[in-house]
Each structure stands twice: as structure tokens, then as C-alpha cells.
Amino acid sequence: MPEHDPVIKPQGIRKGLTNYGDTGFALFLRKAFIKGAGYTDDALNRTIVGIANTGSGYNPCHGNAPQLIEAVKRGVMMAGGLPIDFPTISIAESFSQPTSMYLRNLMSMDTEEMIRAQPMDAVVLIGGCDKTVPAQLMGAASANVPMVQLVTGAMLTGGHRGERVGACTDCRRFWGQYRGDQIDEQEITEVNDKLVASVGTCSVMGTASTMACIGEALGIVMPGGASPPAVTSDRIRIAELSGRQAVIMARSGLTPDKILTEKAFENALRVLLAIGGSTNGIIHLTAIAGRMGFDIDLEAFDRMSRETPVLVDLKPSGQHYMEDLHRAGGLQTVLRELRPQLHLDALTVTGRTLGEELDAVPSFKQDVVRSFANPIYPAGGIAFLKGNLAPDGAIIKQSAADPVLMEHEGRAVVFENSEDMAARIDDPELDVNADDILVLKNIGPIGAPGMPEAGYLPIPKKLARAGVKDMVRISDGRMSGTAAGTIVLHVTPEAALGGPLALVRNGDRIRLSVAERSIELKVSAEELEQRKAHWVRPVPQGAERGYRKLFFEQVTQADKGCDFEFLRPPQMIARVPARD
Ligand code: FES
Questions:
Q1: Which segments constitute the Dihydroxy-acid/6-phosphogluconate dehydratase N-terminal domain (predicted)?
Q2: Mutation test of ligand 1: which of 202, 479, 482 has the most ligand atoms closer than 8 Å to its C-beta?
Q3: For the chain, what is the mean pLDDT?
């Protein structure tokens, strides 16, 4: 290929030359430097596949990144390409202060800009822990370079005193038992060694597993690529195939915009409902779709929810773990069951359609994915609520809630913020009983900041000791996909912006009706107006400079995916799901 032919778009090592004002010199210099690492001209003339390496000592969920990179490289070279791995930010859920969500958009910017800045014809993105896959998909969608998402895969389950355990639904269950004095110090220490039995992502249908399934439903993860556990040979094979496929996509020009279409997002929303996926999934899907110019229509999504049962029997909605779903055929078993409700003509990274991929999958008897006739839960996992407490909406994971509490009116017990809750929730003097509704304010996108997973308010200790397992809890925050309970989340607009949640007082009556999809504060509009007149907006802490300043200025509300306003396209092109 002529090195400076203006008609031919530069490929491989010639792409995106550093700007020295002399392109010939820029290429000469680039090649001179990379030859310092021992590359030949033959290698440098090949299709380049970048590999986003998010391995980190702080991220055990990505502990298999070295093996995955080796396998991706093998796949790229088998197809005649040149693999080059590069680091980006890595975010591990429990190692991110104030919360991983605060860093998701930063990681998406890092991913997008490194894809743009460095010469690569395609990219394989290695992600896994909750916010990493959404960040990578957001960034890569904006960069629009051919890409394959490769997830690290779920951890194995462990055993505790004869019982199978896995992060992190069981982490919460055991901690709840410890708080309720049902297990002692020795046992909580003992189980801490058993909950995470290997590297990899959480072993239930938490956010990581949800995003892996969503990636496959979108067609951007290799077919069959969502479910193999991190330490299995199947996971390594998927890595090799991902590398090989990336070369093919680079050569055929299969860019994300041809895969991440309206139909693909509808398929992904359907899958989110049918797997009993994490509530975080809807925020992340909204953000990814937003990058492609699609607004998620939450009311249309709710209508979809009424006709899409939960089919996957995984914790926290059911009883199994990700490794069981893998043995049951993985997401493809779910997709086959959902087939009549899917857009089968949506394209995947293989260049074939979803329908063509499903035709190639054998069916067999298994007991993890249910049939439509015998679902785990008769409707979709997530319901969208509206009312005077949440004018722009809120959600509840109905498949993991107490059916009795889903129709409930009670007295509000209000916590102004996380610190207030931590200080008082276990106070023996706290005026609270099991029928009350716990309200936590100021944990929204701006309020905390970063919308932490603090929406899973603990049951006050005195009630936990009395055997109370669930209460209605309401906040503008999120909760972990591994958590369960009658928990209303993502109340929008958030309290820190003066949404009605900011005006709730102790003793107010609140009514939740999931059947009616409503969340109502039983206080008159006049009274709320008076309260609003006296409301003082909290001053964001540490927002004078840096990323935090950018975050406070740019972060959108949950209904826009909490993306930064300036990262979304100037104009949206459609609403998804399409209304009939
Ligand atoms: Fe990383 Fe759960 S903490 S996936």
C-alpha cells in the first residue's frame, strides 16, 4: 500500500499519525520507536487489533486478564493480524471511592480517547466488573471502531459448612444474619474466606452478569460469550475467537453502528427483563443507547415488562449461579426461549444475524432457564413507577421484592443522607416499626455523588433482631444487582436537585402500588410548595476543581443514564423501544 496515498484511508500502523506537521516523518518516527520493541515491517504492515487491558491488582474480578490477553492475541495472529494491548482505567466495585459509578464516565472517556488516539483497526475490550463493560461500550460506541466486547466471566462458587455460596447475594444474606445476631463473629469471619472462590465477576445475576448478557443480546459479545466462568477453558476459547473475529470485522468494516441499532437495544431490554437482571442494567443501557442517539422510553420498557416473564432461575431472583446458567447453555438458551419476542435480523459481531446464530445452537434438557409457560416470575424483573414522589420516574426490581409489600402504604422514616442513616439506623431509640417506609435522600447522581449502591438500606437492627427481613425502602440511589428486597430506586429528579424526595418528612404517608406502577407522597400540592420554598440546595463538597467539578456540572439524571451531557450526541434520533 502506498504510505501517503490521500485517497486510501490509512490503516493499521499508518492510522492517526501524531501531528508533527510532516506525516512522512510521523510514520517514520512511529515505526522507529515500535521497532525498539522488536517488531518487523511484516508485523507492522498487518491489520492491528488493540486489546484494552483492564487487569489491575485492585481488580480481582479481572484477575484472569493476562490469560485472556494471551488468547486474544493468539486469535488475532491466527487470522493474520497484529495484536497490541494497551491499558485503560480499571474499576473494581469494592475498591472505588466514593463509588464505582462516579468513575464509569471517566473510564468511558479514557476508552474512547485511547481507541481514537492509537492506531488500531479493531479493538477487543476486556471488561467484567460492574461499571467496566458499560464504560467500554459507551466509549467504543462513540469511537465507532470495529469492536468485540470480551468479559472476564463469573467467579466459581464456594462452599461454607456444606452450603454452596457465591458473591454477592450470599454476602448480603450472611451479613444480614450477622446483624440480626443469627450467626456469630467466628462464622462471619469463616464465610468471608468462602464467598469468592476464584477470580472473576460476581457469580449471581448481579450487574456484571447482567451486562455480560446484555452485551451478548446486543450482538457485541461473541455468541455464547456471556456465561463461561472466568477460570474455564470455554472462557479462554471465547477470548481466542474474539481476537480472530476482530480481525475479520476490521477487514469487513463491521463497525458498532451496524450492530448497536434500535433493534439490538430492544433485544437487550427484553433480555434484561427475562434474566431478572440488575436494576443498574437499565441505567447502563440508557447510557450506551444514548451514545448511539437513542433515548430509552421507560414507559414503553414497562409495557415490555408486562409481557416478558423472568425465565432465568438465578440469584437474587431465583436459586442458581452463573456457572449453572453456563452448563444450561448460557444466554443462548434464554434467547431461544425468547425467540418470538426478539428481532432475529439484528446483526452480531460474527457478521451473521441473531436468528442465524440461534439456529446453530442445539437444544437440550436443563433446569436453569424456564419456559414461557413456567416462568420464575410472570412479568419482567423491573417495573417502572411514576407519581408525585417521582415525576420523572423510579424503578423497582419486582422479581426480587416481597409480593405483600408491593402494595403498601406506610409512615415515612426519613434519613437526610448516608451519614445520617449510618448514625441512626441502628439506634435503639429510632422510632420505626416494620410497616414503616424507610426513605433515604441525597444519594442520587449529584447528591452522593455518583449514585452509590446505598439504596439497599439495612433493616434497622432492632427490627432485624425481631425477625423483620424486608421493608419498603425508597431512595434516589441505586442498589447492587446482587441485592433483593422491596426497594424503590432511581427516584428522579433526585433530592439534591430539589425533587419531591427532598421534601419528604418523618411521619408523611407514602403509598407504593407496583400493580398501578405508582409511588405517591400523600401530602397536598400546596404543602409541598411551601416546603419547597424553604428548601435549601445542598452545596456539593469538593466540587471546585478537577474531575469532581466536571462530574457535578455534567452528570445527567438516571433517566438519561447518568452519562455526561457533553458525551451524548447533540441530537437524539429515536426512542427505544418503538411504540406500536
Ligand atoms: Fe466485581 Fe461483583 S465486585 S463483579
A1: 46-356
A2: 202
A3: 95
Q: Is 130 in the pocket of ligand 1 (CB under 6 A)?
A: yes
pLDDT class for 497, splitting at 50, 70, 90? very high
How much is the pLDDT for 2?
Answer: 39
Strands (E), 416-524: 437-440, 472-475, 487-489, 509-513, 518-521
Q: What is the pTM of this model?
A: 0.96
Does the beta carbon of 202 lie inside 6 Å of ligand 1?
yes
Q: Helix (H, G, I), strand (E, B), or coil: what is residue 575?
A: strand
Interval between CA 56 and ligand 1 midpoint (Å)? 13
User: Bridge-partner residues for 127, per DSSP?
Assistant: 151
- Cis before residue 316, ω within 30 degrees of 0? yes
Give the residue-averaged pLDDT of 474-481. 93
Residue pair 488/498 in contact by the 8 Å Cβ criterion: no
Structural domains in the chain, CATH included, are 46-156+198-359 (3.40.50.2300), 158-192 (no CATH), 383-540 (3.50.30.80)
CA–centroid distance, 92 to ligand 1, in Å, is: 7
**What's residue 580's pLDDT?**
65
Question: d(Cα 339, Cα 298) in Å, to the nearest integer?
Answer: 22
**Distance of CA 409 from the midpoint of ligand 1 (Å):** 35
Instruction: Answer whether 154 contacts ligand 1 (Cβ < 6 A).
Output: no
In this prediction, residue 5 has a pLDDT band, given cuts at 50, 70 and 90, of very low
Q: Residue 316 C-alpha to ligand 1 middle, in angstroms?
A: 14
- pLDDT tier for residue 541 given thresholds of 50, 70 and 90: confident
- Tell me the CA–centroid distance for residue 12 and ligand 1, in Å: 35
Question: Which tens digits make up the pLDDT trace of 58-71?
Answer: 999 999 999 999 99
- Calculate the alpha carbon distances from 333 to 202, 227, 360 in Å: 21, 11, 12
Position 3 pLDDT exceeds 60: no
